[in-house]
Specification:
Helix content is 63%, strand content 11%. It is mainly α and 150 residues long. It has a three-stranded antiparallel β-sheet with strand order 1-3-2. Strand 2 and strand 3 form a beta hairpin.
Length: 150
């Protein structure tokens, strides 16, 4: 990477020994991807924290707040705020679990499912823009390497 990294920092100012390490390059790439994705979602009227929660609920079904937070590694207090906001937007419902009255189940609404589709489209658009200089094979290789690393 040379010049401005898209995060307002001049990447060439970092010492060469950092710029030549995987941990530094992965960190920079993550910052760039997060910044660009957050901007794209904002333009689409979407909040970044909502995506993982909605995706989890649609893929795995209704779940307790704590379970969603553990799955996504979201702090419990942040999870409460995200679910409160999602309920306020009408994207999920929160109701007592009939099998365990001590916990609430969070369930996506039809509006939440439609919003998840908008998230998917916005993220796909930004990912295409971010990886514009990569061939299809390079994109597949990058994803395979990132899966292997994580």
């Amino acid at each position: 990477m040379h010049g401005d990294d898209g995060c307002g920092h001049d990447a060439d100012r970092a010492p060469a020994r950092l710029r030549g390490t995987a941990f530094w390059l992965l960190g920079r790439a993550a910052l760039i991807a997060q910044k660009r994705t957050t901007e794209r979602l904002f333009e689409a009227g979407l909040q970044r924290g909502f995506y993982g929660v909605l995706a989890t609920l649609v893929e795995f079904g209704p779940a307790a707040q704590a379970e969603i937070g553990r799955r996504l590694r979201i702090d419990p207090s942040d999870m409460v705020a995200i679910v409160n906001a999602l309920v306020g937007e009408g994207l999920v419902t929160r109701e007592r679990d009939p099998e365990d009255r001590r916990r609430n189940l969070v369930t996506p609404t039809d509006a939440g499912r439609a919003t998840l589709d908008r998230f998917d489209a916005a993220i796909a658009t930004e990912e295409d823009a971010l990886l514009d200089g990569f061939t299809t094979a390079e994109r597949a290789q990058l994803l395979a390497l990132l899966h292997r690393l994580t």
